[in-house]
Amino acid sequence: MKGFVAGTLLACFAFANPVWADDFEDGLHAAWGLDYVGAYEIWLPLAENGNTRAQYSIGELFADRLLTYNDGEDRDYREAVRWFRMAAEAGSPQGQYHLGQMYHMGRGVMADFVLAYMWANIAYGNGLNAAAISRDNAASFLDAAQIAEAQALARACVAAQYRDCD
């Protein structure tokens, strides 16, 4: 799992906004050195100022329980969902994908395969090709009417610029 996080963080850096690139890279170096609190402290101001890569990366720290409140798994997952949602609503395909994953697994939110499908479909539509696998996996738990509902929700969500979609 830690290898996945490092790879994900490297991919995030590849798309980083040049204005924030140096600070974001500092957070990556901290995370690569297993200093997750240090990475969080570097990324937090960036995330609060709208850097979706920092938002998504903080979500990853909580989702993978690399950063924890130590008072229960559910609170950590709810915090991950909060950061993934922030990135998703700002248009980040990675945030959209991982928010869908949280719905699929029922981590930090009530499990909901319709919303899992919707967010994965949106991420795929925004260029994250790997999201098609998650979308299709969610579809395996849905009937035709639920898939149609998820597709309609995805269209409405895109039209609403990813706000208030779930």
Describe this structure in words.
The chain is mainly alpha-helical and 166 residues long. It folds into two domains: 1-67, no CATH class; 93-166, no CATH class. Helices cover 73% and strands 0% of the residues. It has nine helices and no strands. It has helices at residues 2-14, 18-32, 36-48, 52-63, 73-89, 93-105, 113-125, 131-139, 144-159. The longest helix is centred in the middle third of the chain and has 17 residues, at 73-89. The radius of gyration is 15 Å and the shape is globular. Residues 1-20 have low confidence and may be disordered.
Topology summary:
Blueprint: H1 2-14, H2 18-32, H3 36-48, H4 52-63, H5 73-89, H6 93-105, H7 113-125, H8 131-139, H9 144-159
Characteristic terms for this protein:
166 residues; single chain; 2 domains; mainly alpha; disordered N terminus
Short overview:
With 166 residues, this protein is an all-alpha fold. 73% of the residues lie in helices and 0% in strands.
**C-alpha termini separation:** 28 Å
Runs with pLDDT <50, length 5+? 1-20
User: Which strand-content bin applies to the residues?
Assistant: under 5%
Derived from helix and strand composition plus strand pairing, the structural class reads mainly alpha
Major sheet details: none
Helical fraction:
over 70%
Question: Strand tally, please?
Answer: 0
Order of helices and strands: HHHHHHHHH
What is the radius of gyration?
A: 15 Å
* Shape verdict: globular
Please tell me the total number of domains.
Answer: 2
Average per-residue pLDDT, rounded, comes to 87
> Count the helices. How many?
9
